[in-house]
Specification:
Blueprint: E1 3-8, H1 15-29, E2 42-46, H2 50-59, E3 63-65, E4 68-73, H3 88-96, E5 100-106, H4 122-152, H5 157-174, H6 189-194, E6 203-208, H7 219-230, E7 234-238, H8 240-247, H9 252-261, H10 268-280, E8 282-288, E9 292-299, H11 304-311, H12 313-317, E10 319-325, H13 327-332, H14 336-341, E11 346-348, E12 359-364
Parallel strand pairs: 1-4, 1-5, 3-9, 5-6, 6-7
Antiparallel strand pairs: 2-4, 8-9, 10-11, 10-12
C-alpha cells in the first residue's frame, strides 16, 4: 500500500466524478495486477512509475506489481457536519482513518450545476470544510482532556505535560488554525498522532476546472495555489470530467493521443499521486527478479530493516544485511549480475538510510 487518502469536498464540486474515474481506472488495470474495491466508496489504483517497467524488462520478470494508492470517497460533508448534518459524524469518523486528505474544490462555472452555497468560491468552500473538521477536533480534544485529567490526579508528570500540550493545540483550533500548524516537540510527536485529529493530517488541494482550463488553470486555481503555499502544502489542477474520459480508454496509446490533443502530458491522477507522496514524505524502493518486479512504498529517512519489514515482519526482525543497487546503476549495468561485476552492488547494514529508487535484496535469519 502506498498511502490512504480521503477525498472530501462540498456537494457538486466534482468529488464523486473524480473518485469514479479513479476507480474505473483501477478496474481497467485489474487484469495486470491485484485490484479490489474494498467497499462501495473505497478503491485502489496503481502508482504510476516508469522505472518499474524498466526493471521488469531487464530482470525478465513474469509479473509487475506497482505500489498502490487507496482512495476513500468521504460523502456527506456539508456545513454542520460536526453536529451530524448530512450524516456528518459517520463520515468524519472515516476521515480519521486516512493518512491524508484530498480536498476537492470547485474552480469552474457551470450554470447547470448548482453550487450548494450559491456561488463559486473555492477559498470559502475550503474554510467551510476545514471549520467542520476543526469543530469535530475540538469536541474530540475536550473529551480526551477530560479523560486524561482524571488520571493526572495521580501526579504523573508525563500526563500533566500531555494535557498542557493538548490545551495548546486546543487554543490553536479555537483561533481557527489547523492542528497541523502547531509546532510539535520531538518527545510528543508520537503522542500527537494518537490524538487522531483530522486537521493534523496533510491536506492536498485539488482544483477541479473545466476542460478548457485543465492545462493552465484559472484565477481561482491561482488563489488556491497561494493558499496551499502559505500552508506549506500543494495544490493540483485537474479536470474530473477529463479524468472520467481517460478512464474509459484501455489503450495506453489512445490515452497518450487523447492527452496530447488537449495539451496535457499526463493524467491528473498521476499528478495527485506525486503530490501526495511529497506531502506525506514517501518514496519508493524496488525488488526485481525473474518471478516479479515490485515497487514498495516507505517513508523518506527509513532505514534498511524498516524497508525490509514492508515485505514481511520476519525480514525486519531477523535482518542481517541488504544488498543494494542504485536504480541508475541497475539500468546502466543491465541488471543484478552486471551491477555486481562492476562493483555497483553494495552490502548495507541496519543503519543504512534507503534512497528513492534503490533495488534491494534482503538477507535475514529468523
Amino acid at each position: 500500500m502506498g498511502f490512504n487518502c480521503g477525498i472530501v469536498g462540498l456537494p457538486n464540486v466534482g468529488k464523486s466524478t473524480l473518485f469514479n474515474a479513479l476507480t474505473a481506472t483501477a478496474a481497467a488495470q485489474a487484469a495486470n495486477f491485484p485490484f479490489c474495491t474494498i467497499e462501495p466508496n473505497v478503491g485502489r489504483v496503481a502508482v504510476p512509475d516508469l522505472r518499474l517497467d524498466q526493471l521488469a524488462a531487464i530482470a525478465k520478470s513474469v509479473s509487475v506489481i506497482p505500489a498502490q494508492l487507496e482512495f476513500v470517497d468521504i460523502a456527506g460533508l456539508v456545513k454542520g457536519a460536526a453536529q451530524g448534518e448530512g450524516l456528518g459524524n459517520k463520515f468524519l469518523a472515516n476521515i480519521r482513518e486516512t493518512d491524508a486528505i484530498i480536498h476537492v474544490l470547485r474552480c469552474f462555472d457551470d450554470e447547470n450545476i448548482i453550487h450548494v452555497e450559491g456561488s463559486v468560491d473555492p477559498l470559502r468552500d475550503a474554510q467551510i470544510i476545514e471549520t467542520e473538521l476543526m469543530l469535530a477536533d475540538l469536541e474530540s480534544l475536550d473529551r480526551q482532556i477530560e479523560n486524561l485529567s482524571k488520571k493526572a490526579k495521580s501526579g504523573d508528570k508525563d500526563i500533566k505535560t500531555q494535557i498542557e500540550f493538548m490545551q495548546l493545540v486546543r487554543g490553536a483550533l479555537d483561533k481557527g488554525d489547523l492542528a497541523s500548524s502547531v509546532t510539535i516537540p520531538d518527545d510528543l510527536k508520537t503522542f500527537f498522532k494518537t490524538l487522531g485529529l483530522m486537521t493534523s493530517k496533510p491536506i492536498l488541494y485539488v482544483c477541479n476546472v473545466s476542460e478548457k482550463e485543465a492545462e493552465k488553470g484559472n484565477a481561482l486555481t491561482e488563489k488556491v495555489s497561494q493558499m496551499a503555499q502559505a500552508r506549506g502544502t500543494e495544490a493540483v489542477v485537474i479536470c474530473a470530467e477529463i479524468e472520467s474520459q481517460i478512464a474509459q480508454l484501455t489503450s495506453q496509446d489512445d490515452k497518450k493521443e487523447f492527452l496530447e490533443s488537449i495539451g496535457l502530458t499526463e493524467p491528473g491522477l498521476n499528478r495527485i499521486i506525486k503530490a501526495g507522496y511529497r506531502i506525506l514524505g514517501l518514496q519508493t524502493y524496488f525488488t526485481a527478479g525473474p518471478k516479479e518486479a515490485r515497487a514498495w512504498t516507505i517513508r523518506k529517512g527509513a532505514k534498511a530493516p524498516e524497508a525490509a519489514g514492508k515485505i514481511h515482519t520476519d525480514f525486519e526482525k531477523g535482518f542481517i544485511r541488504a544488498e543494494v543497487i542504485a536504480f541508475h546503476d541497475y539500468i546502466e549495468n543491465k541488471g543484478e549480475v552486471g551491477a555486481k561485476e562492476s562493483g555497483k552492488m553494495r552490502q548495507e547494514g541496519k543503519e543504512y538510510v534507503v534512497a528513492d529508487g534503490d533495488v534491494m535484496l534482503f538477507r535475514f535469519n529468523v
